[in-house]
Amino acid sequence: MPKKRYWLMKSEPDVYSIDDLARDGSTSWEGVRNYKARNNMQAMREGDLVLFYHSNAKPPGIAGIARVSREAYPDHFAFEKGHKYFDAKSDAAKPRWHMVDIEFVEKLPELVSLVDVKGEPALADMELVRYMRLSVQEVKKAEFDRVKTMGGLK
After folding, report:
1. Which of 4, 80, 83, 130 has its CA 20 to 30 A from that of 121?
2. DSSP labels for 47-106?
3. Residues near 80 by Cβ (< 8 Å), separated by ≥ 6?
4. Distance between CA 25 and CA 112 in Å, rounded?
5. Cβ(150)–Cβ(116) under 8 Å?
6. 141 within 8 A of 6, measured Cβ to Cβ
């Protein structure tokens, strides 16, 4: 059985928030158009845990926890002409873009803001601090656990 891994996924809360995920129970994470982020999604396995990050918010920060419920599969929106995620170079026989499904686990009692993350020495090497623009990032277990504690969870 593969070892559980940990991730961080970003969403603008006015587009899709942790509260939306709590309401819906699960969602597909489509529209990723960065190769490193796509490769990270392809590495995700069912049961991996995800820090749900609200980007472009005031303040931006980690708002909750989700779980990967379906491993990477072709992002069908890449093939739909007229869709905002359409990619004319993507081929259904050899898809360029993928998505995963995630399910709600819990909302953090306290938002862990980006300022809090940057100010925490134990998180100094976190990809969120070093590669801020990447929308899907790997997180070390110790970082995941520290964020949970900072957010008010045991």
Report:
1. 4
2. T-EEEEEE-SSSS-EEEEEEEEEEEEEE-GGGGSTTSTT--TT-BTTB-S-EEEEEEEEE
3. 86
4. 22
5. yes
6. yes
Length of the chain, in residues: 154
Tokens of 12: 């603008």
- Per the DSSP assignment, residues forming a β-bridge with 98 are 74
pLDDT at 86: 77
CB–CB of 60/105 below 8 Å? no
Place of tokens 């699960």: 26
Give the separation between CA 106 and CA 95, rounded to whole angstroms: 32
Q: Which domains can be identified in the chain, with CATH numbers?
A: 6-150 (3.10.590.10)
Q: Quickly state the pLDDT bin for 83 (edges 50, 70, 90).
A: confident
pTM of full prediction above 0.85 = yes
Q: Which residues pair with 136 in a beta bridge?
A: 9
